[in-house]
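Researcher: Structure prediction, please.
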Amino acid sequence: MDPNLHQYPDGRIYGSARELFVREREMEREALVVCSDKSMGAGITVWDMDTGDHLFHIPTCASPPHGLLCLRNQFLAASQVHKHGSFGGGSIFIWPLNKPQALLRSYPIEAIGPVSCTKDGIYLVGGAPSGNAYVWEVSSGRLLKNWRAHHKSLNCLVFSDDNSLLVSGSDDGVVRVWSMISMLDMADCGSLPSFLYSWSEHRSSITGLLPTLGSSSSVLVSSSLDGTYKVWDLISGRLLRSHAFSQAITAIALDPGEQLLFSGSADGKIFANALDIGLEENPSAVSEDLQMVLTGHK
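Model: Predicted structure follows.
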């Protein structure tokens, strides 16, 4: 039995309110967070994945694709949709998970699309339609670095599992890998970052970037409107394999065991493929392996 808890003679367990609260907090729950990318009035809604219960609602928010994230499992952070043709900069709001009021509001000099953060929640990065990328220190809100990462709009930003690499994807069809260690070198704060790798094998806009976790943490999956996903080795920079679909791919996701890759297409279909990360003899050759197709979306 937990030494902080005690037992009555009849078998009932008791403990201080603080002790019981800590035990409850240690039991993590999964939640589904949904946000509109068009209507500010739709806001953000959060449901419990186990029970389906509605947990809470943030009434005013519209975030672009890849613009919403969970920060340290304690906060929600979202860049806000910037209407085409409107003037002014961008905005990023941060809310605690138990309150609908924004704890922090940040106003960058230009509109921000995708955002991503390190696992420890120390750094937040954002990408702009101009192709510029920004790195902030979350605790202070200080802008640490900004640079021209791509020639066209940034669509996706992700960190590698160990937070050492930042990966960016753009409308220019290029995926680039950046070293966070070099980027945050304070002795060289005035210089512009240079990428480790720049992959231009996709023929259209990048729509998704997925770093794998666990034992295969050096692998990244990218998807594109060209109807393909590609698997890359983050250490060597090599293309491992490529898979083609009949429709543009707009989103990708991995199952928790990282055995299946789910690819959402422009016509509403979801394709499920076994994720084989071994190097093919000809990785540039596009494969069309057997797959499961899920339908129902329109």
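Model: The chain is about 5% helix and 40% strand.
Researcher: Thanks, that helps.
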